[in-house]
Each structure stands twice: as C-alpha cells, then as structure tokens.
UniProtKB/TrEMBL annotation:
Subcellular compartments: Membrane
UniProt keyword annotation of Membrane present: yes
UniProt superkingdom: Eukaryota
Name under which the protein is recorded: MFS general substrate transporter
InterPro entries: MFS, MFS_trans_sf, Tet-R_TetA/multi-R_MdtG-like
Species whose genome carries this gene: Teratosphaeria nubilosa
Transmembrane annotation, as ranges: 37-59, 79-97, 109-128, 134-155, 167-190, 220-242, 329-353, 412-431, 443-465, 477-505, 552-571
Membrane topology: Multi-pass membrane protein
Gene Ontology molecular functions: transmembrane transporter activity
Lineage, uppermost ranks: Eukaryota, Fungi, Dikarya, Ascomycota, Pezizomycotina
Amino acid sequence: MAHSRQASTHHLRNRHGSESVPPPKPTWLNLPNKFQLAILALSRFVDFFQMAALQTYMVHQLKSFDPELPDQVIAHQSGVLQGAFTAAQIVTSILWGRAADQPQIGRKTVLNIGLVGTGIGCIGVGFSKTYGQAVFWRFVSGAINGTVGSARTMVAEITPKPWHARAFLLLPAAFNFANMLGPMLSGALVDPTVNLAHYFGPGGTFGGSTGVAWMEKNPYAAANLISTVLLFSEALLVTFFLEETLKGKEPFQWETLNPIRLAQSAYEHAIRARNRGYQLVHETQRQGLLNGQERSSVEMDRLASSGGKAGESRPVQRLPFRRIWTSNVLWTLLSIAIFDFHMGAFNNLWILFLATPREFIPGVSDAAAQSVPQPAAAPKDEQLAVRRDLEGLVTRGVFKFAQGLAFPPPTIGFAMAIIGFIGIALQFLLYPTANAKWGQMRCFRASLFLFPAAYYLAPFIALLPSATSPPEPASGFYVWAGIGFVVLLQVAARTFALPASIMLLNNSSPHPSVLGTIHGVGNACSATFRTLGPILAGYWFGLWTERGIVGMAWWIVASVAALGCVASYWVRNGTGHEIVLPGEEQEEKEAQTAGGSGNGR
C-alpha cells in the first residue's frame, strides 16, 4: 500500500497547489496495490481457466452423450453449450453491475458469488450424463457469474490513472496464462483411468484392483473438478484479503456478527439515550452503532448528513441510468460487440476444426481417384477438381474441401496451449514497447486488421502436407507451422485489442458513479455477442462442412471482423467523467488543473 499512499499524496499536492512535484513515471515496480491487483488477476485467471478447460474436451464430451450423432449436429451443440454460459449473462450482467454499485452489496460480494456459483456449475457439467444437463449447468454458471464487471471496476478504482495501462494489462495476461494451463491440465485429466492409468486405472497408485470407479463412470468429471478447486480457492482469497473499493461501503467485518458485541453496542446506546433524552437517530447511525462503531464516528455521520461541517463530505451523486448512453458509449459497445462476436466464433470454430475428421476414401489409389467421372460439359479445371494426394487426403479444390485435423483431446489441449504461450510472450515483450511508441488507439485499430487475415487462412491448414495418412490425426512440421502462424496472427491482434477494449469501455463511462453499471452493460453486450458467435459459427460450420466447404464458416467470420476495423474509427478514448453533475464544477476544475484526462482519438 506504500506506493498507493505515495501516488495519492502526489495527487493531493497537485490539486491543492501547495507543492509542484513531477509525477513518478509509471512502471511495474511502483505500480500501486500490487497484492490487491494480484488477487483480481487471479479471479480472472480461474474464470478463464474453466472456459479454456471446457473448450478442450467439449466436442468429445458431447460425442460421449450420443456417439451416433453426425458431426454437423455436434458442431451445433458445441456452439449452444458455449453460448449457454454467455446467454445467461445477457440479462444478469446488467443486474450484477447495478448490484455492484449498491452500497448494500458492493463489488467484492458480487465477485465472490460469481466465483462460488461458477465452481458449482463446473461440478454439474463434469457429472452430466446428457446434453441437456450440460447446457443447464453452463446456463446456471453464466447467470450467477458477475466476475468480469466487478473485477474490471475494482482494478480501475484501486489504480491511479497513470498506471491504468499496466494494471489493465494484467487481465488479458491472466487470460493468456489460463489459455496455456487450462487446456494442458484439463486435457491430461480427461478419462484419467485410461490416459493416467498408472495413477487411476486398475492396479494404479490410487486405482486399486478395478480403477477409480467414479472416474470411469464420469470420464470428464476430473477435468471439471480442477476448475472447481481453483474457483473455490480464489473465493477464499477474495473473502479474506481483497478490500472493497465501492465508496460508501465499509468492508464487511466478521466480528460485527459477534452477539456479545452487538449486545454491548445496544446497551451502550440505551444508556446514552437515557442520559441525554430521546432523539431521532438516522438509519445509518443506527447501523453504525449496531456494527460497533465508535460514538464519535456516528456523530460525524449525523453532522455530515444534516449539513454540518464536521464531516465536510458531500453526498455521493449518481448519474441516472437513462443518461449513460452517450455517443462514445454506443460506439464503444458496437466495437466490443463485433470483437466479442468473432472472438467467440473463433473459439468454437478452432475447436471444431481441430477435432473434425480428415477426409479419406479407404483403398482408393491415385489413379482411381483421378478416374472419378466428371460432367462432360465441365471445364478442364473442374474436371481435375476431384483428386487424391499421396497420403489419401481427398481435396475437391482450393476452396472446396471438408476436412479438419482429427486431433484427440490431449493434442487439442496442446494446440490450445500454444495460444497462451504466444499470448504471454507478445504481451510482455511486444505490447509495452509498441503501445508506448504508437499509442493505444493506433495499436488498437491496427491490430483489428489481423483478425480477418487469421480467420481467412485458418481452414487451409487442413491442406498442408501431413506426416500421417488419414484418418489418423494430422501431424508434422508443416501442420504445426501452419497452426503456429495462424495463432500468431490471432493472438497478436488480441494482445492489443483486448486490453484496449477494456480500457476504452472503462474510460467511456460518462460519470464515476455509473462505472460498475457501464462495465455491467459492457459485459452484457459482450455476453450477447459471445453467445451469438459460437452458436452461429457452429451452425455455419456444420452446414458448410456437409456441403464440402469447411472454410465458409471461417470466411463469414472474417467478414464480420472486417466490419470491426471500420467501426473502430468512431471510438475515442474518453475521460471517464464526461458529464458533470451540479456541485461538481469546482472539483472538475481542480482535477483539470492537476492534469490528466483521456486523449480523445
């Protein structure tokens, strides 16, 4: 907290003009409230972890519910399963955002409810026996999860503005670490009686003579339970070590529930009332006495509320909900909507593409494939459209092909972990330098152009030479080089776009009193389009794969991402306090004199 006090002291000195001290240059070393930020970053890590873990084995778990279902139905179900979590947040995110702004509830309570509720939902998914049960538990998890808005709001409130760029960078860093560790750990824990037979199988360390029975009956339970353990552990950290940041809300003290202390406070209050006569007591004063506050503290509250000078504190003014919809808020929400749509679509398409079988006609030689009858009237290039390469891979043309990479869960986990590895490297090696050199808005807009390129190229990985023949999983240098290149483009774009979108949403808030609400609305917007993205992408993937064009779903998503490039030019970096309420004019002038606000476009 020393750095926080230093930053606050500097701010007060500047505002009152008694000293002219140059502001300290923001660095990682002098970042205020490191421990509090670490807890908040961990809250985002465990939340992202459970999402990344589910994506690793989702397709295979859906197939285990009904092995007879065709791939196009599985593609649609995977989109719905991912979308169920975010669909519930469309409504509840705004409610959780409003709840986080209420002094009776606060940010910390909303964050804790989300962590515990999501952990319970992970247990439900792990032990689900049908597709409907899995969707239900994902929906419940999403409805109760208000962690995103609360965590972002608390990061903004405990960090002075000069350090915002670094503090908000911790949230996508948590995303990248989760994307690296989540798929690897969960992929290894899928069907542990088989994949970890030495420990959990028959004759294993913990398996006994027949293996661990509940793991054999529920092969995806262990992979979900690791998420539950992390979520519950983080909830304990939040409960005992995270400080509430909402103005007007005192941190909850467990000792206030002590019945002896409550009785003592009530007795002291009765004695004072008898000695001084009856007088009207404010509700806040009554609560203060019941909570064991000192009499002087309650008296200060009474004076402040009655207009006395003892507290010198003005009541906190709140901007009405109807006034939050400024043009910058709307353009920022549109940009976030497009961003989250194609991000959600990519997550689903990538998993489906990695798990989709490779096309194979067993026993057909090259000559036989070349001799497949072609329409007599077809042009010469179309007559050669059906051909077979040396591995037995069937392709129908440069754009018309319908195969994936046929990866099993452990390999999918490794392929997903690459996203985290690259993300961490770019975030700490490239992002700070580029952001300092070209600025946040320039980097944000430029990065958006990498998304369409990545999505357009992704399906062509299936056409790269493989060291194995179909229907075996694709492998070899060229396949993994292709995966690495596409992931590099997508992650490089996300490295700049994700932290920028968080900061732009935070700074678009027209008044500090609605910051939690703005993050709640932003999360609801994100949830809406992260719901639509996977569902529509899964539908497009199944539809066009059946028609023999696996890349069409990718190219539709690339077109949507291109629209985001255009929309970004109407987004500007706000101040976080565009609207000044009556009585705030003098305070706003002092803040402007002290310097430091948004940088516009």
